[in-house]
Amino acid sequence: MKKAKPLVLIVDDNSVNIDLLVNTLKKDYRLGIAKNGTTALEYTDKHLPDLILLDIMMPGMNGYEVCTRLKAVTRTRDIPVIFITAMSEAGHKTRGFEVGALDYITKPFHAAEVKARVKTHLALKEAHDYDIYIASKIQKTLLLGSPPRDIPGIQISQLTIASQKVDGDFYDFFKHSNLCFDIVVGDVMGKGVPAALLGAAMKSHFLRVLNEQLRLSGKKELPEPAKIISSVHSGMIDQLEDLETFVTLCYARFDMSKYIFSFVDCGHMRTIHFHDDLNTCSLLRGVNMPLGFPEKEPFRQISVQFKPGDLFVFYSDGLTESKKVNGSLYGEKRLVDFIQANARVEPENLIKSIWNDVTAFSHSETFDDDVTCVLIKIDKEPLSTVFPDEGRLEIMSDLKELGRVRSFIREFCAKIDDSVLDDKRLNLIELAATEVMANIIKHAYNKRSGEPIQINARMSADEVVFEFFDWGQGFDPESVPEPVFDGSHDEGFGLHIITHFVDEVIYSHGDGGRNCACLKIKLTGGN
Question: pTM of the entire structure?
């Protein structure tokens, strides 16, 4: 697709000047016209020009005030402004630079000079925008960790919107086992590349400290969150003091075996805990100072109980301090009320709804501070009922893993009496599982190796259930044609085998892009 020409807004109350500038620039640029300051601001808010040529002396709002207002708004402050005016005194030029203009052209102007300066500043803006684009890509790698996708009983959704495309908000996840993981959510004071670099250093230091403490303990016990925070603070305090900055954060641990949430809060926004059984929210906050302040007392760790169906919301102050044009803030209370009213919405949809509510409130999608939000939803059904630890296998998308899958199925079914589940029927279940695996590798992951597959198994007096989870492309069994048995086709029998070798097959698509193929085998009255 051909790239559109840059859009230049000409702001001048003199029609002759406008005509001269239009004739000078119309060949190379798209042009907008405004004859007063109010119209210029309205046009800029609606169309976001790439550069503005701005007269100073205009009726009503002068050019200085227009430029000041543009630079005060996140959405428009990076638009280059060139004053073009008959006021040539040094004091006028100085004031123009003070309010944020990048250049100053005096009238009567030469067409070649205008074209050259416009071209130069647009080239500089394009180069700056490209640098920021690349930096934002790097930021996503350095600052924003990927949530664990294979921990049963939880759903995680996250959102980060940067105020300057590169920011100091960061979060990461540290998985310890299938039943335990940590999360850290932080906010470096400041914005832009310096804050992002410090956030990346902070996140990296957490990982080093955690690995070091696990090594010292021989991986026999997990270091407590308070101990991790203390070590990170000791290692970073000198750098933070030298830079005269600080970091607010919350470091938390979810113990899914005991349903305990342990956290160390260091001056961060209060974590929202929605209690599903009570339909209420509580706000969790510690008493520790942000990292970067002298540590006068040991970091205090707090633990609370949670239950199936509960929801935890972590966020930065950029969310609650989003504001309207009149200066009123979105606020913590509005966020808590919104969470309480919508907590049972699936996390992926809920986080979109939060964003929509914030932008509807502020009438903008750009903010003065970074916006970060992470949701962690505890599944409604108790973990011990849904995913017994002994009935779970994690493998990668590789046909060489089929032997492990068959062994897993046989070992899990070994406790069932032969009169209920004989060897012939067990072979059919293994064949069905093999076909499910082949479908996941071939279709969901498009034959890519190394992608995660999770198999959960559970048993009751009436049935055995095997659930195959993947995070690839969803599968619609209705789209698969009926197999042809006349010998003309060598493929297309997998779905038929799966359907006829077990008692029931259920395909579903859940949150976070997780797909499930569920095989049910009846132990009473089955095949």
Answer: 0.59
